[in-house]
Amino acid sequence: MRGKLWFGVAAAALMAFGMAPGASAQTADQPGDATTTATLTGNADGEVSPAGDTDWYRLQVETGRRYNIALAGIPNDAGEALDPMLAVYDEQGNQLAFNDDANGSLNSALRFAPQSSGVVFVEARAFSSEATGAYRLGVSSEEVPPDDAGGDTSTRARAAAGRATNGTIEYEGDTDWYRFAARTGNRYQITLDGAPGEGGLGDPLLRVLDRDGNELAASDDSDGSLNSALEFIATSNGDVFIEARGYGDAYTGRYVLNITPERLPRDNIGNTTSTGGRIAAGRTIEGSLDFPTDSDWYRIRLTEGESYRFTLDASGENPIGDPLIRLRDSRGEELAVDDDGGDGLNSYLEFTAPTTGNYYIETSSFTGDATGTYTLAARAGDVPADANTDASLSPDGDYREGILAPAGDRDWYRLQLVEGQGVRISMQATGTPDSISDPLLVLYGADGAELARDDDGGDGLNAWLEFQAPAAGAYYVEARGFTDDATGRYAINVIGGEVGNTYDTAEALMPNGDPRTSFIGSAGDVDWFAIELIEGRPYRFNLDGLEDGALADPMLALYDSTGTQVAVDDDGGRGLNSYLSFASPTGGTYFAAVSSFDGQSTGRYSLRAVDTDVPGHAYTDEYLDAADDSRASSIEIPGDLDVFRVTLEAGVTYQIDVSGNGANPLADPFVAVIQEGAGMEEASADAALVRDGGRRVASDDDSGDGLDARLRFRPEVAGDYLIQVSGLSNTTGGYEVKIARR
């Protein structure tokens, strides 16, 4: 519950739209999808039950009418009421309108003007997936007032530069669209002001959109007032649309729209394939972005199979703030792009030419509207794979993106360190379609001897290592793939210093991720790691010394967000290693502190945290064998969800039982079956499961012995399903889930 609502407030939410408190009662629970047969024609009473329930109602709508819909919680005997949420969907499940809190209360209300006639679906649900309670849903409609300008790209209203356009927002939610013929080479100053005197639009909102309705520019408040103003530069000749409306669709009134054109400064480098700009490998060029939206294109000839490196740096007396570099083919199609792959916000791009021919390097700003000077450089050849490399990393903090190509390529970066200086280096996939799948980091000394390496010490398959220089000099970071034939884009990140020695500088530790490997480099050193824990969920922490200079006697302590120690272990693991188990009473951020037992020893270690609970989401790693399998677990906290993945055959009947188990059995088990990829069922008890696609296809509460759950299910479609176990009425305790073919 988010609070208490008295019936007077609940009724007021309905009365605000002209709906009387009286309503027809619903005798059965409504489905939470488009299969519902419940129809909304006026007011209706319903109930969200069990927790996570959603009710859908069919509503017949017509264009030219505006529908006022309100949803209010009805207080129970204790005076507490549901905090409802209201949404409207089309027949394909696309959300058309939504509201949570309205009219200064926790109740929901919205106005909806359909773009086409037909059936829509009104959804009633609770703000909290754990809440239940009665509600009242109501709808009324009225004709939409006549409009002086269309509200989409079909509008016939036009605006012209140099001439004021007067209009009116006739009703809340009204939008006026004006066609405007924009031309390249011009800068347009566009303002939208509330008309002077009574009846002026209180808070104008101004937007510019293209022919597909995509936003090109927008403004709400400007120059210390509620009026709107923006600057727009067209990238091509043709019509755009200028939209006038009230902020939040909550204002009406008269407005004045003005468009003032001015010529842009002449650009010395074009931004098309006809540009006169030229650059060759081995050359450096200084240039400038002369006006907002300016970009400079330089033609360059590349040779098939050859690798090239391009840098775009802010430079000069008026440097561009955040450069952006793109590489385009002979037709101007984008092949590669980089924002911050160079030093700081500068750009760095590696590219291997697939064919011999002309290419184009585009220089621009990240925001697209910045001006300033820059330096563009083109180099032939890949990053060298030996100590002769010209690529370097700063030990104080750096970020680089690169490409391993062809197969088996390795890139070396020089890292200059002083004696005792520590660095943390990570290498990760960039997340782009051409990114490397499994990075590997190797660190070499000045003599080429390997000093450290890591494969999966970061998140997933990414690499992470920490190093402290035994002597001053040059060191070399090698970026490569785990396999000899690996290729792809990667990113290297350098953080200066050792793992943080206070919780303010702690490294992230992921539950169920790969172990973090590091070292205690000096007497009294403590390494801190931050980890997010879930309330009531049990976790295991293992701290082990690693071979080749292992930390002989590791010690592990766990602290909460206030810095209070909540757990500590010295030799709970194998030998002198540390192990502890911990269940957070509150959830949130905790800190694991690694040190040596005597405070004097040094050495390498590995730290790992494991979430031992059954996951409550669609990415669960808990599997059941559909033929005949069972699993015992527990619901530790109210609202906890356990999820098991199972593969089912079409047309086969399966029986699923969930029963209380153990010394503290789950009092009222509930089971649901989710079909993955079968559509969206937003905002239910399954919300964490189905946000990436899924639909509840079966569920049961009390069909087993007593309050135990039992259901028989015959899937129509073969594939992966998710079995969700929870406790109704916020019950907790042990349970056993069984599945068998029947």
UniProtKB/TrEMBL annotation:
InterPro entries for this protein: Peptidase_C_arc/bac, Zinc_Metalloprotease_M4
Keywords: Signal
One Pfam family of this chain: PPC
Signal peptide per UniProt: 1-25
Location of region: Disordered: 138-162
Gene3D superfamilies: 2.60.120.380
Low complexity bias: start-end ranges: 151-162
Coiled coil start-end: none
Domain Peptidase C-terminal archaeal/bacterial: 174-243, 294-362, 409-480, 525-596
PANTHER family: BACILLOLYSIN (PTHR33794:SF1)
Protein name: Peptidase C-terminal archaeal/bacterial domain-containing protein
Organism: Candidatus Viadribacter manganicus
